[in-house]
Amino acid sequence: MELAELRAEMREETGKGPARRLRRRGLIPGVAYGLSQETVHLAVHAAELDRVLHTSERANVLIDLEIPGREKVEDTASIIKEIQRDPVTRAPLNVDFQWISLTDRITVEVPVEVTGSAPGVVDDGGMVQQQMHTVEVSCLPTDIPDRIIANIDGMHIGDALHVGALQAVSDVEILADADEVLLSIAAPIREEDLEVRVDEAELEQLVDLEAAEELAPEEAEEAAEEAEEAEEAAEEAEADSE
User: Fold this and answer.
1) Which of 31, 49, 105, 155 qualifies as a cystine partner to 118, CB 3.0-4.6 A?
2) Distance (Å, whole) CA 41 – CA 18
3) For the purposes of burial, counting CB atoms within 10 Å of the CB of 209, is it exposed (0-12), middle (13-18) or buried (19 or more)?
4) What are phi and psi of 182, to 5 degrees?
5) What is this structure's pTM?
């Protein structure tokens, strides 16, 4: 399996102010750590990070992280450990990379893909209720599967599929408890139950709207922006004085 190449640059400054300035330039601040190596503060281009995330079908893409001035370690790659995102726009704010050895087994979460045709759904109008959307596995980094298959063929209303029934993948050990319920086939929702749920949802929406009006969101947002600008100006002034 090929590694996705991603070029990064070292960064000297840390903190909120420098991070905001990087984002204005289209860069995402981050760190790389692991394998007892010194933590590296870096930044990657947002467009390149997006390319790596969306040109691979793998949830756990292996990355060849190129950092100028840093010598590569043989049989080493990196994975994205965490991406912090803006709660509204979902744009990445920070990214954490973890160094891993390509010759040692690692533990990762792999997506579960439901396939097959359940009579309880097709014939009886039931629904698939999926309790687990990922499962924890152990394997070599180069053996990480794109997905783990959960086959619902032959399942009827009231049936449950356990972790132990998942399709096996060569050289991959599923660590989740074999007796844990992965999904089940639930009976169809009755019309009267659906009406109750709709009424409850409308009531919650009304309560949320009233609360939002009391908070005067326009004024709150304007105040937050002014506070952020003031904080940034103070940080820049402090940096200039140094």
Assistant:
1) 155
2) 12
3) exposed
4) -90, -45
5) 0.69
